[in-house]
């Protein structure tokens, strides 16, 4: 596929690389299987046996981080990842991630029950991954980075943040939180001042001959 881009998404505590190719978001399955402690070959066979997943698997020629060369990787569309995760055997995963996966599967069961009982997918509670908010940004190398944003958080540009600080009531923070921010800002300024003072003291005076 051409015109591929990479982005990093937080997926249940795991750094997940999403491939955008021709407008479709794909997930390389081998890294996520290894990340949660599943045997890749067994999962590949399971996807090939699945009546739905087998129809949407694709191969992408791409260089995945931290690899140093391009390879053919097996991918699923991002929207099918939840269904694949719902069908895995939790007992085969790393012990540290099992509670998160069990909670996610409980949410999937509740969503399916709500759908069949109420007859409308819109009325079913979405799994936690779908209810989350995401911030899309770009790092210094131009790579797209997708970061999960807490439900009680607000996202502001730096100028808007400084402006909101100057207006009483425009920023949803308590007095204690604002005080902690001020202390942290002063400590940062103190470190910067000490650094600049040290740099200036290291500069040798230059004598000019007239």
TrEMBL record:
Pfam short name (any one): P22_AR_N
Segments forming domain Antirepressor protein ant N-terminal: 8-121
Full protein name: P22_AR N-terminal domain-containing protein
Source taxonomy: Bacteria, Pseudomonadati, Pseudomonadota, Gammaproteobacteria, Pseudomonadales
């Amino acid at each position: 596929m051409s015109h591929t881009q990479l982005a990093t998404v937080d997926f249940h505590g795991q750094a997940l690389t999403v491939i955008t190719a021709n407008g479709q978001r794909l997930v390389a399955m081998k890294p996520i299987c290894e990340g949660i402690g599943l045997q890749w070959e067994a999962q590949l066979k399971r996807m090939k046996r699945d009546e739905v997943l087998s129809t949407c698997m694709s191969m992408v020629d791409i260089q995945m981080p931290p690899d140093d060369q391009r390879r053919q990787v097996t991918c699923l569309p991002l929207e099918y990842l939840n269904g694949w995760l719902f069908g895995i055997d939790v007992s085969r995963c790393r012990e540290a991630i099992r509670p998160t996966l069990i909670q996610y599967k409980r949410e999937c069961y509740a969503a399916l029950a709500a759908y069949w009982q109420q007859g409308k997918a819109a009325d079913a509670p979405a799994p936690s991954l779908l209810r989350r908010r995401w911030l899309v940004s770009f790092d210094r190398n131009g790579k797209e980075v997708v970061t999960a944003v807490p439900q009680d958080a607000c996202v502001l540009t730096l100028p808007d943040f400084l402006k909101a600080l100057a207006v009483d009531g425009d920023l949803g923070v308590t007095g204690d939180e604002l005080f902690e921010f001020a202390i942290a800002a002063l400590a940062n300024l103190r470190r910067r001042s000490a650094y600049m003072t040290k740099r200036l003291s290291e500069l040798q005076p230059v004598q000019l001959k007239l």
